[in-house]
Amino acid sequence: MTRLSVNINKIATLRNSRGGNNPDLLKVAMDCERFGAEGITVHPRPDERHIRYQDVYDLTKIVTTEFNIEGNPKEQKFVDLVLATKPHQVTLVPDVLNQLTSDHGWDTIQEQDYLKEIIAVFKNAGMRVSIFVDPSIAMIQAAATTGTDRIELYTESYAKLFAQGKKEDAIAPYISAAAEATKLGLGINAGHDLDRFNLQYLIANISTIEEVSIGHALVSDALYLGLENTIQLYKRALEVK
């Protein structure tokens, strides 16, 4: 069954908006685990506008499920942070400085040499590595030669087409991409703009997805539905019928 990792960036955004420690990021992480989440994801950025680097050190001490840190390894501060905290998984994302949110995957052809080098750094330190990719056969084939353990399919285009009622068009490139990844021995994660409405269709069609990372939609739902109930609804959506 596909695992749910809750991205708690938005909790940190809310906390930072007033200073202090309300909501308590660590308590929220522990509650997410208690309510059934199988992982916690954070994406610290250089400006620390949501997750702070100190948060990562603090979370390392209390997360009991899988800890996944996302970020751009071209920032040396990020590399140093990951090597110091040694999460279960590091997800490499090609963000640019001050980017609002992730909006594209790696060009695994042009960045092949760099990815091989940086992935080896993290794997030699004992971490599983996943890299953010678009649902492109060529990019997945090149990803398979970088040494990465997994890819994370960037699902924004899926979510947009799904919202327009074009389910078949939305899912088609992801089915092909996932099949190619599996053939090449890559594990598959997925994330970005997934919610409790489009999640089940994705998993029903691609049961090989091992993990989804969801933050914005889940936290937004929790405002109305409560955190515990929301996590259970998302876990239910991950059940293949």
Structure description:
The protein is globular. It has helices at 9-16, 25-34, 53-62, 76-85, 112-124, 137-143, 156-163, 167-183, 199-205, 216-225, 227-237, and strands at 3-7, 39-42, 66-71, 89-92, 128-133, 150-154, 187-191, 209-214. The chain is 46% helix and 17% strand. The chain has a single domain (3-237), classed as TIM Barrel (Alpha-Beta Barrel), CATH 3.20.20.70. An eight-stranded parallel β-barrel has the order 1-2-3-4-5-6-7-8, surrounded by six helices. α2 (25-34) runs parallel beside α3, α7 (156-163) runs antiparallel to α8 (167-183) and α10 packs across α11 (227-237). The chain has 241 residues and is α/β, with parallel strands linked by helices. It has eleven helices and eight strands.
Main features:
single chain, 241 residues, alpha/beta, TIM Barrel, eight-stranded parallel beta barrel, 46% helix, globular
- Got a strand count? 8
Tell me the major beta sheet: 8 strands, parallel, barrel
Shape: globular
Poorly predicted regions: none
- Helix content range: 40-55%
Mean pLDDT: 95
Overall CATH class = Alpha Beta
N- and C-termini, Cα separation: 11 Å
CATH domain topology? TIM Barrel
Label the structural class. Answer: alpha/beta
Strand content: 15-25%
Order of helices and strands: EHHEHEHEHEHEHHEHEHH
- Treating each run of at least 4 consecutive H or I residues as one helix, how many helices? 11
**Annotated CATH architecture:** Alpha-Beta Barrel
**Radius of gyration in whole Å, from Cα?**
17 Å
Give the name of the CATH superfamily: Aldolase class I
